[in-house]
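Give me structure tokens for this 164-residue protein.
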Amino acid sequence: MAVPPRQPQVNEVSILAGSPGSRWPGVSDPWHIVGAMATWDDVDRIALGLPEVAAGGRDLREWRVKGKPMVWERPLRRADLEALGDAAPTGPILGARVPDLGAKEALLADDPEVYFTTPHFDGYPAVLVRLEHIAPPELEELIVEAWLKQAPKRLAAEFLRDRA
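Here you go.
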């Protein structure tokens, strides 16, 4: 009788970078676990696994590629709370650059339980993310896309070429 494969635990990650099934080989790929939601540790691990990324921020966390912001901690401000009203989320919120306004609208329409925006970001290619509602593999895709948007063109091309 065959031994069933070991089941991963919530928020457990594969120890092999570029493990099978990874959309972005070379970036640690969290196992897809139904119900596993992302944490700030996941954001840090994914972002710092990308080339030329530095973490920083005085009071709030942020991650930059070559000095350009790609993802950041973004608590809601008074104006945000007023605009969102009862729909204002209460957990940790991540801001993320997206390729363009079309991508932003697609994310907002696709999963409004995860992605949202405020009037502050009108006309700006960024989304806000309910961190406790996004699975680590989806977070990884979002962060890599933010990195690709903000990284210098040569660095992004090299990254994509090395992973082809």
